[in-house]
Design brief:
The complex is a heterodimer of chains A (307) and B (402). Helix content of chain A is 44%, strand content 17%. In chain A, the strands form 3 sheets. A 3-stranded antiparallel beta sheet of chain A has the order 1-2-3. Classes of the chains: A alpha+beta (307), B alpha/beta (402). The complex binds pyridoxal-5'-phosphate and FE2/S2 (inorganic) cluster.
Chain lengths: 307, 402
């Protein structure tokens, strides 16, 4: 059975705010019965202050879908609509002390229900822009749709590139067959063939090697290093507000050739979403620098060997 | 009160008598059965006895038709891949849409290697169309692989008849009988079945041991080549303790066959009736007239299976579901969908699978617990109103991107 946190169990066995709110003036309905998840969120919003005075949920779904719905209503009660809209799916997951990767979509559904309810209150139309596919990489909770889209929009051809862009495959590597499958299919649609890059299974480099390249990279990239760092800093500056809104932050830690180490803090560090965050930063950096770079957390920085 | 285990199609408790038979083979009887000295020799005798015990349970003609493997999945893979390798000119496979992943995923993989896989559809009770099957049999087909009993619903397929049809068409026939062996009587000697898969842990033997039955004379290509174990048909030093355990379990299963088909069946029927009477909007999935004696698959409408299981677990009842959420995929069970069960019910299917260790008292307890669990979840469901399902529920609640 799933490794649910105590908090998830608590909110599943004894959900808060279940049922529809009487005299609700904001209703959000999201989910998909074919996927086994559906949620109706009803809110009572004070028209003067836009404060959510009451929230209720009705959910068709598994344990974590019910717990996520319960958590969502607890989080948003008493907030204004604008405040509530800053709640991310990660906030919902964090409130529950984390969700298994296969279940992160339950928290996404919670956030979407909220957006749909606010749109409904404001008389806007809410359109779901996210599609979910079969989970391919369990280590980083990356699904098929995300991998496919990243392959298409970045013209990726190898598993390694997919890992660099999405993180998928960067952990235990057991999903590489699945990633190859997506690559084969997407490339075939473009009339290309997937060519595996060797037999895989690289031998871990000796611990001292990266340090040497760190030193040499600094010199070999030479004059452009300062320029690159400026570009990197400006990209991070642009991304910072979004991260801070989630209670986190990012700092540049080290540039080692094509590998850029960053220091994630606050809500971003250590959470399951750190991988996603890093993937996002990496994409932005690749675009800004016009070259391929890899972004890693500074915790993965090679430790300098005493000479 | 002790917990109630109703998930015997997933795995079973190893019978204490089986454990007892096994123990000496971890300690004093540790020899390699291939060795000449007396350490090995006795172990060799134990393997022979186990082979005989399995032979009897299956009603096989010869004990050499029993090949010990590491699990049901290995037996399935060995059978299908052997048929393909032995007849390279034949590029088609016939199977069904409701097979276990051990067969289905292999076949889907073989499709990517250029094989044509015909998957027989089922009707709303999970039954096959034999006419459609007949029309697919040809000399292009290397193997037919059809399960004897479905693991989710317990529905039985007429494999003996289908094997005869295959035999007449000159096509090899394999059946995944992992759920059927030990629960229904078998007489393979008088059947046209060429290959049959068994898994120990479904019949009170340990996990990690299985059998491939291979009818004498059937063309065969091993999956594992190497040593001469299992007459060169499955290399690798034998998992002696587990094989001995499987032998004992086979003997016990043969002895309990009548009990399984009377007492266990009566408990299952009682449980099913009790739940159907006490809970509105639920129904039996599969073919109630033609199924394993131990399995009840009940679809509870408008709620989701994993949520039901978690609440059952809380009151000490272990069952399982074909729900998507327990497997990590989003689609509900392929078996439920193949039968055309609507999504609002397919997600809420719960499988209760019994064994000879269950009691009527336990059934009463389950019947007493289920209604309130279902009611609690329906109260949370957007498809459920004050007193029952909303009128035209899928219409009344149709969220964005449904
Ligand atoms: C019908 C069927 N086939 C094959 C298997 C796989 O058996 P094993 O777990 O021994 O590999 C199972 C077990 O879940 C099963 O139910
Ligand atoms: S599952 Fe993708 S790296 Fe582990």
């Amino acid at each position: 059975m799933w490794n649910y946190s105590e908090k998830v169990k608590e909110h599943f066995f004894d959900p808060k705010n279940s049922g529809a709110v009487a005299a609700a003036n904001a209703i959000g309905e999201v989910g998909s019965i074919s996927c086994g998840d559906a949620l109706r969120l009803t809110l009572k919003v004070n028209p003067e202050t836009e404060v959510i005075e009451d929230a209720g949920f009705q959910t068709f779904g598994c344990g974590s879908a019910i717990a996520s719905s319960s958590a969502l209503t607890e989080i948003i009660k008493g907030k204004t609509l604008d405040e509530a809209l800053t709640v991310t799916n990660q906030d919902i997951a964090d409130f529950l002390d984390g969700l298994p990767p296969e279940k992160m979509h339950c928290s996404v559904m919670g956030r979407e229900a909220l957006q749909a309810a606010v749109a409904n209150y404001r008389g806007e139309e809410w359109k779901d822009d996210h599609e979910e596919g079969a989970l391919i990489c369990k280590c980083f909770a990356i699904d098929e749709v995300m991998i496919e889209e990243t392959i298409i929009s970045n013209n990726l051809r190898t598993v390694e590139e997919v890992t660099n862009y999405t993180k998928a495959g960067g952990g235990c590597s057991s999903c590489h067959e699945g990633i190859e499958g997506v690559l084969t299919r997407v490339l075939a649609e473009k009339g290309e063939a997937f060519v595996p890059a060797g037999i895989g299974g690289a031998v871990a480099a000796p611990a001292s090697a990266p340090v040497k390249t760190a030193a040499s990279a600094g010199t070999s990239v030479g004059g452009s290093l300062l320029k690159r760092i400026r570009i990197i800093e400006s990209v991070l500056d642009k991304l910072r507000p979004a991260l801070q809104a989630d209670g986190g932050d990012v700092e540049l830690a080290e540039v080692d050739g094509k590998t850029i180490y960053v220091h994630l803090t606050g809500a971003c560090s250590g959470c399951q979403m750190a991988a996603m965050t890093l993937g996002g930063i990496q994409q932005q950096l690749i675009e800004a620098l016009g070259e391929f770079v890899k972004v890693l957390p500074d915790t993965e920085m090679p430790v300098a060997v005493e000479a | 009160m002790s917990d109630i285990y109703l998930d015997n199609n997933a795995t079973t408790q190893v019978d204490p008598a089986v454990v007892e038979e096994m123990l000496p083979f971890f300690t004093e009887q540790f020899g390699n059965p291939s060795s000449l000295h007396c350490f090995g020799n006795q172990v060799g005798h134990a393997l022979k006895r186990a082979r005989k015990q399995v032979q009897r349970l299956l009603g096989a003609e010869f004990e050499s038709e029993i090949i010990f493997t590491s699990c049901g999945s290995e037996s399935d893979s060995t059978a299908i891949l052997s048929a393909l390798r032995a007849q390279p000119e034949r590029r088609e496979i016939i199977t069904t849409v409701v097979e276990h992943p051990a067969v289905l995923n292999l076949c889907e993989h073989l499709e990517t290697e250029g094989y044509t896989v015909h998957k027989l559809e089922v009707d709303n009770r999970g039954r096959l169309d034999i006419g459609a099957y007949q029309s697919l049999l040809s000399d292009r087909v290397a193997v037919v692989s059809v399960m004897w009993a479905n693991n989710e619903t317990g529905t039985l397929f007429p494999v003996e008849k289908m094997a005869e049809m295959a035999h007449e068409a000159g096509v090899m026939f394999h059946t995944d009988a992992v759920q059927a062996v030990g629960k229904i009587p078998m007489d393979l000697e008088n059947s046209a079945i060429h290959m049959l898969s068994v898994s120990g842990h479904k019949l009170h033997a340990p996990k990690g041991v299985g059998v491939l039955y291979l009818k004498r004379g059937t063309r065969f290509r091993p999956l594992l080549r190497g040593g001469h174990q299992e007459r060169g048909r499955r290399a690798g030093t034998e998992n002696v303790a587990s094989i001995v355990g499987l032998g004992k379990a086979a003997e016990l299963a043969l002895g309990a066959m009548a009990f399984e088909n009377s007492e266990v069946k009566a408990m299952r029927d009682h449980l099913e009736q009790g739940i159907l009477e006490a809970v509105p909007n639920c129904f039996v999935a599969g073919d109630p007239d033609n199924r394993l004696p131990n399995t009840a698959s009940i679809a509870f409408e408008y709620i989701e299976g994993e949520a039901i299981l978690l609440l059952l677990n809380k009151v000490g009842i272990a069952a399982s579901s074909g729900s998507a959420c327990t497997s990590g995929s989003l689609e509900p069970s392929h078996v439920m969908r193949a039968m055309g069960i609507p999504y609002t019910a397919a997600h809420g299917t719960v499988r209760f699978s019994l064994s000879r260790y269950n009691t009527m008292d336990e059934m009463e307890r389950v019947i007493a617990e289920v209604p309130s669990i279902v009611a609690k979840l329906r109260k949370l469901s957007p498809y459920w109103g004050e007193a029952g399902p909303l009128e035209d529920p899928e219409q009344a609640f149709s969220p964005v991107y449904a």
